[in-house]
């Protein structure tokens, strides 16, 4: 009787262990061990390798390019996404759902496809190159530099911002807006004093996600970044072309730290003050 009771008491524990073990193995094999190895790799070439992004002008420039591009894309996406998302949430018109579906269609495309779209528009064999060749006798291209990357990142990020702001605008407290209008507030005043405070957490969270996505975008950059180097392509070159695993790991850590800091700040200042 006692042995049977003990066996029955242990059964739930073994069942729980059987359920948790596969997840633990998967976590250790595909996240924990690679991360530990990533953090340890730069030490093979000395502690200074960890600071390569700060001590080498080329890597520092690549990181600066990536941060500047990501900030520009984030700001532009937030402005356009807020304008379109709020308008769609506040207005009903025929074809609204179809328009929203078209605006969010890029969510289904990988970065490589979006880069290909930009090449078809502004590449050497693109539409604009053909038109400029016909009109002025010169093939004008922009796909392979800063402008091409900016447009591709914007195209990739905008649907996320539109969907986020549309959902946030639909849940806004309309009573505050109605009260402000009844007191004679202009549309600009309502936007500044009502909309912006209510949408501030959404803006901060969405901006952090957009920035992190732009920092780590590889497919689009791999397609377009031949004249403007960004840190994901630098990491790819060091790892694949030069087999410099320690330096690639160091740059990956730097990229992760910058992205993590932005996400941490967004969580810290975007949290509910009461929850804090």
UniProtKB/TrEMBL annotation:
This is ABC transporter permease subunit. It is a multi-pass membrane protein. It comes from Acidovorax cavernicola. It is found in: Cell membrane. It comes from the Bacteria. Gene3D superfamilies: MetI-like (1.10.3720.10). One of its GO terms (biological process) is transmembrane transport. It holds the Pfam family BPD_transp_1. The lineage of its organism: Bacteria, Pseudomonadati, Pseudomonadota, Betaproteobacteria, Burkholderiales. Residues 63-266 form the ABC transmembrane type-1 domain. The chain crosses the membrane at residues 12-33, 67-88, 100-121, 141-158, 199-225, 245-266. Belongs to the binding-protein-dependent transport system permease family. Keywords: Cell membrane, Membrane, Transmembrane, Transmembrane helix, Transport. One of its GO terms (cellular component) is plasma membrane. The keyword Transport applies.
